[in-house]
C-alpha cells in the first residue's frame, strides 16, 4: 500500500533525525506499522499528507532538538465551497495585500462596479488590471530609524511598500500656501497627514476622503494654507457652512476648538501621522512592535515547552501501555 510518494515523505522527515539509533527507528517503524494495519473492512489507507503529518509527530517525540516544520508566515490561498457559495481567502504580507487591494479598488472605480465584481472581472481577464496606475500615499518619518510607514487608508505598518516609482515630498515643514482656492497636493497631503480624520468630535471619516475646509473663507481672504484648512467630512462641512458650529485652529498643535450655537465648546486633537503628538508616536510604535514581537516569541517558546511536556507524558503513557502488552508474551513482529 505504501507508494513511492509515501515512502519519500517518510524518508524526508526521517532524514531530519540524522543518524537515529536502532531503537528509535524500530519504535517509529512499529508505530507506523500499527497505524497502517487496517482494523476495519475497507479501511482507507492514509494519504501521503497524513503520513507526513504523523511521522512529523513521531519524529518530534524522539528528538525535540529539531524543528521539522517551518511555521513562519508564508503566503496562503484557500477556497471553501458551501452549498452554492464559495469563499476564497488569500493571506500575504500586508504590503502585498495593500497593493492588491488598491489594484482591485482602481478597477472597481474605473468600471463602476463593486470590489467583489472588480476582482471577478480582473481574474477572469475581462478587464485589464490598473495596477501600474495605483497611487498610494504614505507617510514616513525620515529622522527615526526603521520608522513605521503610515499608509493612507490602511494605517501604520512596518516596512516600505514596494513601488514601481516613488515621488517623495518633504512635509517636515508646512508647505507654502496655494494661490488658488483648491489646495496644491502638498497642502492637501499636509492637512490630511496632520488631521488623520474629519476634525469634528467623534467623527472617524478618514481625512483623505474629506473635504478641506477654509476656516476663514477664501473669498474673505482666508489663505489656502494648512494654518487655515481643516479636514471635514461632507456632513460636518455642512454643519460648519450652515453656521451651526464654528471652530478655531491652533496652527502649532493642530488642535481644533469647536464653538457651538448653544455656547458649549469642545477640543479635538489631530490624529494623523504628521500631528505633533503622532510624530513622537512614530518612534514609540517602532518600539511597540519590537516589544510585541519579543513577547510573542517568548509566548511561543513557553507554549512549545508546555506542549513538549504534554507530549512526553503521553509518550510515557503509551510506552507503559505497550510494555504491559509485551509482558503478556505477545511478540511484536519488528
Ligand atoms: Zn465628520
TrEMBL record:
<feature type="compositionally biased region" description="Basic and acidic residues">
    <location>
        <begin position="299"/>
        <end position="328"/>
    </location>
</feature>
<feature type="region of interest" description="Disordered">
    <location>
        <begin position="292"/>
        <end position="334"/>
    </location>
</feature>
<dbReference type="GO" id="GO:0008270">
    <property type="term" value="F:zinc ion binding"/>
</dbReference>
<keyword id="KW-0540">Nuclease</keyword>
<keyword id="KW-0378">Hydrolase</keyword>
<dbReference type="Pfam" id="PF01844">
    <property type="entry name" value="HNH"/>
</dbReference>
<feature type="domain" description="HNH nuclease">
    <location>
        <begin position="186"/>
        <end position="238"/>
    </location>
</feature>
<dbReference type="InterPro" id="IPR003615">
    <property type="entry name" value="HNH_nuc"/>
</dbReference>
<dbReference type="GO" id="GO:0004519">
    <property type="term" value="F:endonuclease activity"/>
</dbReference>
<dbReference type="GO" id="GO:0003676">
    <property type="term" value="F:nucleic acid binding"/>
</dbReference>
<keyword id="KW-0255">Endonuclease</keyword>
<protein>
    <submittedName>
        <fullName>HNH endonuclease</fullName>
    </submittedName>
</protein>
<dbReference type="InterPro" id="IPR002711">
    <property type="entry name" value="HNH"/>
</dbReference>
